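Protein: ATP-binding protein
Species: Streptomyces castrisilvae
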Amino acid sequence: MSGTRREALPLRHVLTLPTLGSAVRIARETTEQVLAEWGVSRLHPTIGPALLILSELVTNSVRHAAVLSPNVTVIYAAGPDTFAFAVHDRHPYQPPLFSTITHTSGGGLGTVLELTLGLGGTAVTRGDADGKGKSIWITLPL
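Structure follows.
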């Protein structure tokens, strides 16, 4: 999906949390609340995998970025047939997303990519303009 289409998604929500272990649970619960407010059923077949993807990305920020990033931010966007979210931190390292598919580590970015692509979605890493942070955007069809 192009950046233009994601920016056209009318529903938006932003959540910023301290980069602590509790961020994973809070982000997951907030995602469920936001989707419910937007009329997306928790039983929709995309939502369970989306929550796992989100949890893995927030966990990665907590584990690997907290030393340089006191906060992690989750940005949500949705439209009639699309749910997109990004996990942003202020650590400069941008993991090579697609090389993770070949590694069978049993979790992390490999799981994120496998689930995202399996749902017909996309994953993109976007660096901050100053080079000191990044967002990993996941876009999933609803």
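Remarks: The domain at 3-141 is CATH 3.30.565.10 (Heat Shock Protein 90).
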